[in-house]
């Protein structure tokens, strides 16, 4: 089954990739690696939903943070497809990096980031299993609650 078919079965629609808002590119290919810049939890309309604004442990619940991380991963896949032409060119998700906008005492960062990790495995199967870092941060662009970056091996 192709990745696109799997996404369709899951009811996932990839949005138009977000344009960079600063001096960087959305993705860089170097040899057989594709590095995707950090993606926010933007919806199909290209905007942050009000529930995805703010900090985990304050305005944002763990469940909402999980859903936001999942949305970030969907946006990562949209950038990967734009860079590669097809997600079937992905041999493996090598690494995800997660940045969680959280109050200093928030300790459930890993559970929030599972939203992105679970999505990668659902979309890519075993090729979606990856190494990962999850970091709590003081702020993110647009006051988004989650940002996710990725590295893929390309076939």
What do you see in this structure?
There is one protein chain. The chain is an alpha+beta fold. The protein has a single domain (3-12, 41-154), classed as 60s Ribosomal Protein L30, Chain: A (2-Layer Sandwich), CATH 3.30.1330.40. It is built from 3 helices and 5 strands. A 5-stranded mixed β-sheet has the order 1-2-5-3-4. β3, α3 and β4 (131-137) form a beta-alpha-beta unit. It starts with a helix and ends with a strand. The relative contact order is 0.25. The model has no long low-confidence stretch (mean pLDDT 97).
Short description:
The protein is of the alpha+beta class and 155 residues long.
For the biggest β-sheet, the strand order reads 1-2-5-3-4
The residue-averaged pLDDT reads 97
- The CATH H-level superfamily is RutC-like
* Quaternary structure annotation: single chain
Count of individual domains? 1
CATH architecture: 2-Layer Sandwich
- What letter string, H or E per element, gives the SSE order? HEEHEHEE
Cα end-to-end separation: 16 Å
- Tally of separate helices: 3
What percent of residues adopt helix (DSSP H or I)?
25-40%
Q: Tell me the radius of gyration.
A: 14 Å
CATH topology: 60s Ribosomal Protein L30, Chain: A
CATH class: Alpha Beta
Give the helix/strand class.
Answer: alpha+beta
Shape: globular
How would you sum up the major sheet? Answer: 5 strands, mixed
Count of individual beta strands: 5
Strand content: 25-35%
